[in-house]
Amino acid sequence: QVQLVESGGGLVQPGGSLRLSCATSGFDFSRFEMRWYRQAPGKERDFVASITSAQYTTKYGDSVKGRFSVSRDNAKNTVYLQMNSLKPEDTAVYYCNKFPRSMSDAWGQGTQVTVSS
Question: Hey, how many other C-beta atoms are within 10 angstroms of the C-beta on 117?
Fold first, then answer.
């Protein structure tokens, strides 16, 4: 079954940077688009970024364009999210998942990102 392990979160000051990783297993990683999402307390899970499987085409949510960069390593079955110029409003739990996602595909535990001075 699909397994996703997010890591790399932490506490960072405004303007700082973090690099998140999502190690995957249980599916053919190289054939799927991968997406990053985030969920702030009391809010729904929102789309952050995506990267396609073959052309590595990327898309970003409006709030992170120009600051975040998504990449992938198909040899390592891992997707990354480089986050620069972090803002307090970026504080959330960050998750990755494949797209399309089946209802039976579990979510990982996520990784907490806290931006605060």
Answer: 8
